């Protein structure tokens, strides 16, 4: 099995999200302004997308926090959970900046996302490391599909504002990160979890409901 799906590795490459984490790019239009020529429907689409993405990254952070609270000292998966959590921390930091840049209000359900995320992470970790990985597999499957849908929606935007192609690139980067997490979960025996199909269905279904709620609230 390739090493890249067994563990996360640091690769020396330029990432789109670095535009939000490096000082030299902070004054560019792409990271400092929002399009003014979007239609009403497109603006609503952008608002709901970033609101959901920020909420999703909050929940992901707390899922991994809950898992690590239980499995921190596990020699096989503890370091993997920490590395995935570290990536999610960056995702959230970037989404926080995007939310401010595009004048998007955060979801009123952010505290719910924290409690639900931590509870889900801790409970599945208590069920065993395979169940924790099954949780990651289910969550990242839904999030990967969700990011794919967002990129298709952004393709319909008729604007020359540089923030839109940058946003698409950031979403693609984060989508790829989430799919890497999914691969890591599968390699680490997520599908050996007790009642894997049921667990995946419940967790994935819950994620889809949360996405729809955060779009609206």
Automatic annotation (TrEMBL):
It comes from Psilocybe cyanescens. Catalyzes the hydroxylation of 2-polyprenyl-3-methyl-6-methoxy-1,4-benzoquinol (DMQH2) during ubiquinone biosynthesis. Has also a structural role in the COQ enzyme complex, stabilizing other COQ polypeptides. CDD domains: DMQH. It catalyses: a 5-methoxy-2-methyl-3-(all-trans-polyprenyl)benzene-1,4-diol + AH2 + O2 = a 3-demethylubiquinol + A + H2O. Belongs to the COQ7 family. Binds 2 iron ions per subunit. Keywords: Iron, Membrane, Metal-binding, Mitochondrion, Mitochondrion inner membrane, Monooxygenase, Oxidoreductase, Ubiquinone biosynthesis. This is 5-demethoxyubiquinone hydroxylase, mitochondrial. Its cofactor is Fe cation. SUPFAM superfamilies: Ferritin-like (SSF47240). Its EC number is 1.14.99.60. GO terms for cellular component: extrinsic component of mitochondrial inner membrane. It is found in: Mitochondrion inner membrane.
